[in-house]
Amino acid sequence: MNNKIQHSGIIESIEDGCIHVRIVQTSACAACKVAGYCNAAEAKEKIVDVFCNTADTPWTVGQSVMVTAPGEVAPRALLLGFGIPFIVLVGVLALVFWLTANEGLAALCGLGALLPYYGVLFLLRNRLREKFAFSIESE
Question: 3-class SS at 129?
């Protein structure tokens, strides 16, 4: 079983240490043959940053490539981006409401508790970039 996330794309630009690849992310409906007749079809263009040594890269702007990532990246990213913040939000909300019985204060404290969490993620972005790294393969 191939345990990789793969998207085909086109290299948009190459900067020092970073290759920007444009991919088209489609929903399951977008690949359907009757998607043109249905309002549910959805496709989004995204730019994926691939960090590597661009000094000796064989890639050129406009080249079609395959962007890949290990399969275990998706669950980790979902956990860091949605799972842990949800637990923090609900936990602080419940604790403050239990202590004060004030819904408005509990809601504000719950949302405010997310600021340090996302601040820490921002400070650790370079370390996280290495753990959630994409790579490029030729098509």
Answer: helix
Distance CA(78)–CA(10), nearest Å, equals 26
Other CB atoms closer than 10 Å to residue 92's CB: what's the count?
19
41-56 confidence digits (pLDDT tens)? 566 788 888 887 766 7
Q: What is the dihedral of CA 105, 108, 113, 119, to 10 degrees?
A: -150
CA 28 to each of CA 21, 73, 82, 112, 127: distance values in angstroms, whole numbers, following the listed order: 22, 21, 22, 36, 33
- Which residues in the chain land under pLDDT 50? 1
Is pTM, for the whole model, over 0.85?
Answer: no
Give yes or no for a contact between 9 and 50, defined as CB atoms under 8 angstroms apart: no
The token pair at 28 is: 């399951």
